[in-house]
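Extended Data, panel c. Modelled sequence:
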Amino acid sequence: MPGGLISTFVSPLLPPLLLLFLSSTLRSLSVKMVTPQSLFTLFGVYGDVQRVKILYNKKDSALIQLSDGNQAQLAMSHLNGQKVFGKVMRVTLSKHQTVALPREGLDDQLLTKDFSGSPLHRFKKPGSKNFQNIFPPSATLHLSNIRDGIGEDDLRLLFSNSGGSVKAFKFFQDRKMALIQMSSVEEAIQTLMDLHNYDMGGNHHLKVSFSKSTI
């Protein structure tokens, strides 16, 4: 198929995989920036990622295994066509059924990671509010679990230092949550990957998700 994409039926009885292909002429620019952890964070907005494998001989492609078919379809529908690190993401179902972990000592060991026991899964708890807050990528991000004493200037600086340009900011009344608007959807995607679960001290880790609201 054009662009190196594949479309293959995956049994609903097994956790399906997604194939991610980063399409751009700027090939060498973003490959170094993409890691299993960053893909876990981004695709984890739409499902509980179990394993991620960046292909050793094709580092602009990755296999991402989610918990079930619904999560895989959700991630594919929201992330296919979005831009990250200057590249367009092409996401489709993979012909593979599972991501195999590499044997110890192989060169691709750092390119494959098992996240099945991660405490950062958003949808592991039945009835979690995260199920009600699944939105497409947007320039506006929702921040929660903000530590007491952290002000607007602190958060603006944090997100600016991540390489983005903050256009607007708004605290919720309790100041434990806020909205922050980046200059583009691509910037918001990149800052979410960088700053979700950021350690703010005092046992507070910043939670970042896409918002349907605007400021």
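The first helix runs from residue 27 to 31. This feature is highlighted in the accompanying rendering.
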